[in-house]
Amino acid sequence: MRRIELDPRPDWERTIKQSGLIYSRSLRDDGSAVEYWNDGAAYVFTLPEVEELERQTEELHRMCREAARYLASGELGNLGLTPKAFELAQWSLEQDEPDVYARFDLAYTGDGSPAKMLEYNADTPTGLIEASLTQWFWLQDRLKSGALPADTDQWNGLHEALVERWRVLLHRSLTEGEGGRLFVAHSDADIYGEDWDTVAYMRDLAAEAGWEHTGIEMKDIGWHHGARQFVGVPEAWGSSRSIAALPGDEPGTQYPVIRNLFKLYPWEDLVSGEDRIVGDQEFGALLIAGRGLFGHWYEPAWKMFLSNKLLLVALWRLFPGHPNLLPAYADGPNGMTDYVVKPVFGREGDGIRVHRADGTVTSNGQEYRREGTGRERVWQEYHELPDFPGSNGSNHPVLGSWVVNDESYGVGIRESDGPITDYYCRFAPNIIEA
Fold it and tell me: What is the model's pTM?
């Protein structure tokens, strides 16, 4: 893998927004603007290199599925979850509830050595639009302008893979008598628009697969006491193809019963005991008490095993010395002098601290908002991200390797100035050279 630089496309800011990437610009604490999309750089792979990285991604995914069963045994405790939440994850894994997608974060030097797994975002992966759409349209523009050879390709089959996955899930839902309507939920706490945009794209993918789809905010998911079911917001009677609807409070209205839900919302928050759905009715307690009665929730509850950083410890115990893994422990550095301390529910680099042998400690200054019930931490060996210097200085890339239905389907690359990939990283497209 190597990094190249090109002149940014004219009017690229408007172009990326047309692809759905509306959250490229953000502000640092000092008020300076930062662009997330890097239009003037790209990472170049060879086809054999991509095929090898796909093989490593799929092997890691298979290992993670085995590690999930290890975690479900309780060998590492309740993983920072409440006992009831842990039981829900166990039950979901036993049922082999279907999932949709996930994203590995990998460190890769591009010199032929194995990629190293940093973590697995298997519950609420984002970065989807830029990986699936924006970089694809970037490639088409570059081919059209002649900036890249006509036979240049891209490691990116995400859109087609996700449509096919939703098509399979629709067939399953219809076969089970659960209907063809999918609710797609996000939290209004997202102030940048990324979550809203991601679920909007997920609705497009589901629609292409044949689903009837409805957007909803997490806070608007209701609970019908009589039917003991989760319901959407009231709508006109007979206004959808829902297989199940309950009379609304107003004449001529209905509550659609939710039998299929995609939620971009962490399971550890859902089952934390803090979200109230109505009065003192607690969201997670309803889910736990009625498990198996609410149709399909995507991602399923067993993804709590794969999105938890203790997965890294389980993998190292099951596959010690594997070339794609880094040593990881649950009880301290165990003799490591260069290591990273991670909270079990951390995301976006929050709460991570990098300890170096010289005594220095680096973090992004942000604490993750949710601790595990026992303040669990993971100590993972520090792995220096490679540097691909450019005209603006250092660029430390992390490969976001996507998995759909157990197979590898593409990559999104975020590069940062320093060792932690945080909110101010940049997304650079990829190409496969002919």
Answer: 0.93
Tokens of 361: 């400690």
Q: 3-class DSSP state for residue 143?
A: helix
**Which secondary structure element, helix H or strand E, spans residue 201, and what is its range?**
helix 194-209
- Torsion of Cα atoms, 255 then 258 then 263 then 266, to 10°: 100
Residue pointed to by tokens 């301290």 = 332
The more confidently predicted of residues 247 and 243 is 247
User: Per residue in 300-344, pLDDT tens?
Assistant: 999 999 999 999 999 999 999 999 999 999 999 999 999 999 999
Residue 209 exposed, middle or buried by CB count within 10 Å (0-12, 13-18, 19+): buried
Pairwise CA distance, residues 388 & 90, whole Å: 42
- The length of the chain is 434
pLDDT, tens only, 15-51: 999 999 988 888 877 888 889 999 999 999 999 999 9
DSSP annotation string for 266-316: -HHHHTSS--EEETTEEHHHHHHHTTTSS-EEES-TTHHHHSSTHHHHHHH
Q: Measure Cα distances from 392 to 33, 35, 396, 412 in Å.
A: 16, 13, 12, 21
